[in-house]
Specification:
The structure is a homodimer of 379-residue chains.
Chain A (H helix, E strand, L loop, with lengths): L1 E5 H12 L13 E7 L2 E7 L3 E8 L8 E5 L1 E6 H10 L4 E6 L4 E6 L2 E8 L15 E5 H9 L16 E7 L2 E7 L3 E8 L8 E7 H9 L7 E6 L3 E5 L3 E6 L18 E6 H17 L4 E6 L4 E8 L3 E8 L2 E4 L3 E5 H10 L4 E6 L6 E5 L5 E5 L6
Antiparallel strand pairs in A: 1-5, 1-7, 2-3, 2-6, 3-4, 4-17, 6-9, 7-8, 8-9, 10-15, 11-12, 11-14, 12-13, 13-26, 15-16, 16-17, 18-22, 18-24, 19-20, 19-23, 20-21, 24-25, 25-26
Chain lengths: 379, 379
């Protein structure tokens, strides 16, 4: 194999596929990046067997020539060093040549690296997916939906299916749901698809979505999502992101959302964020994050929190509206804060259904998102 | 004690004195900030017994009224939470009131914190220093001198005196020296002082200087430095920074600097920085940071580094001048890189005195700084 490539383009491709690679993988060849040159262009692959990322750099596009391939071939180079090496090379182009025993020579400017490569024949093949179940979604919207749900997945392996985000599609509407059984985040959006497409119990590992999100930007362009029994594939212009799906039955969450309300509060999101951040300074120290809220008159709620060691805090927030029964309730303030931080609206509403029942937080300006929380018993 | 204070001014003072506080101090009262209000203003103190920082906020200055003191007094409040609390308070002012049992009430906007305080009588007194040995230096210059030497102190406690920077004054010239016995950094500057002042073996802990540096900015104003047998005090406008000095005899370093040279190289600092960063990618993995340099013709030096696992790198750097004997030498590349990063000049010169002898790196445009290194044997 021998080729010369535009350095910037190569660095970007290497950084993208490196996101899939776990330096501590027990499968030696997966600690490397697979580089494959053929007449169409260069293909880079990184994988930790849960996630695989493939990046393609064409020989040229309308704008520019990226690549000159003198001799096709392939090699696997250790990712841990290779990423830093290509980032620090001095020239505008990089020449890579592989000789016997997968010995690779990397040249750029006055610099020559000789790197020990691995056998590309040992590298596992990427799954081939049948594309009969697929839909399209703008990149920025998918990125938002991930951000607004993935924080709520469970970090505990006791119920593995809860470490993923559940994807459902019904009548052109896609819904993401995440829950760790104490809180639930739900976000939906219209997508471009065949009206007959119906998907349920497609559970994508939270970690995969977090990595996917890091290689996405706020672009308007459509991403194609292909779903099979065991895999999901996100297809970008020059990038393919594969993730395995989680086994198991995701809990039915629709009936969990209360349909009536006893106490209804509307307030500025930022007022609540700041009050919770202050109150959490004390309850974080007590390690339980418990915050107490009570209604205090027509348009005030009182927030308190106590730590035996440090002391206590009490503050009143003016709310835009407060209707229904008087209420005293305690909850995990950090969970609420996590949710408030992904709500982009300035005003939120909270529907309580009693001190011991779950309550719902929503943005006030649209109904595509809700967050559900269990209260905490404090006696 | 009861007072109302400008929040911004108070936050800054609290953050400054907090730099001295170690949350893991075994002396309970030192985990707190001492707050003392009298008719002149408010004094804040933080200390870990090695470093003490005192910040003073006057009742008012020409610009503004900062403080209203209703009742003088003092209290100690736990730093770990107090700093975050005052930063997150919503109002422009903060009211603090201390009642019985050192119970403090902190009010700002609609927020009330009740905090458990500690007895200020238990707080150790700051040292009283006689000001007979003192000099003045511009803040920005002191900050530069710290940055340019403190990285070279030893991190090992086997020779405690090497964990500090040695301060000397002779005929109005101050010199900072730091060494870990493999490398040495030396920086000098003219200071404002009585011509008769002569100081030697004043060893300030590296950690103290690092903390001092963090509260300094690039201002032109003069700082007064007061030196005693066991303590040094840096006096700012409203801040006093005390550090204990290290016991023991600092090694005599003047004779260590070679006076003649066998091979002399002048080159762009940035060319060497980038080549070392690349070469260190491999030798860092081998954990020894060994870089090899050899002269390669009239105006070239060759840099190489090898890792059994990854491979090797070789590159040539064009130098501005190269005089004297041919040379092959190996050294700890990370040590050189640390020094190059604090040299602000674009061009540097290196004086080698043979493959097994110490060599000197200097900026080319002034003689107030030098860095000395031992080579490494590679056979």
């Amino acid at each position: 194999m021998k080729f010369t490539i535009d350095r910037e383009e190569f660095v970007q491709g290497v950084q993208h596929v490196n996101r899939a690679i776990s330096p501590r993988s027990t499968i030696n060849v997966l600690t490397g990046i697979k580089i494959e040159a053929d007449t169409d262009g260069l293909t880079l692959i990184g994988s930790d067997s849960d996630i695989s990322i493939q990046s393609f750099i064409p020989v040229a596009d309308e704008e520019k020539e990226y690549l000159q391939i003198e001799q096709p071939g392939s090699v696997v180079l250790q990712a841990k060093y290779f990423v830093d090496i290509v980032k620090k090379l001095p020239g505008d182009t990089i020449e890579i040549e592989v000789q016997e025993q997968f010995a690779a020579t990397v040249r750029s400017g006055a610099v020559v690296f000789n790197l020990n490569g691995l056998d590309p024949e040992e590298y596992p093949r990427l799954p081939k997916l049948e594309e009969d179940q697929s839909f399209k979604i703008p990149q920025h919207l998918l990125k938002d939906m991930i951000r607004q749900t993935v924080f709520a997945v469970s970090s505990q392996e006791t119920r593995p299916v809860l470490t993923g985000v559940n994807l459902e599609i019904e009548e052109g509407k896609m819904t993401f749901t995440a829950t760790d059984s104490h809180r639930l985040a739900m976000r939906s959006a219209e997508v471009e698809t065949d009206a007959s497409l119906s998907l349920s119990n497609i559970v994508i590992p939270g970690k995969s979505l977090t990595e996917l999100s890091r290689i996405m930007d706020d672009a308007e362009d459509l991403i194609e999502v292909v779903v099979t029994e065991t895999q999901v594939l996100f297809k970008f212009d020059r990038l393919m992101f594969f993730s395995r799906l989680l086994d198991g039955k995701y809990p039915v969450t629709k009936n969990m959302v209360p349909t009536q309300t006893k106490t209804d509060v509307t307030l500025e999101r930022n007022d609540l964020v700041q009050a919770l951040e202050r109150a959490l300074l004390l309850s974080r120290e007590a390690k339980n994050n418990v915050i107490n809220v009570k209604t205090a008159g027509d348009a005030l709620i009182e927030i308190t929190s106590v730590s035996a060691e440090i002391g206590k805090v009490q503050e009143n927030i003016e709310v835009a509206s407060l209707n229904g029964e008087d209420l005293r309730i305690s909850f995990n303030g950090k969970n609420i804060l996590d949710a408030l931080k992904v709500i982009d609206s300035d005003v939120i509403s909270i529907q309580f259904t009693g001190a011991m029942s779950p309550f719902v937080v929503r943005p006030q300006d649209h109904d595509q998102m809700l967050h559900l929380f269990s209260p905490v018993r404090t006696y």
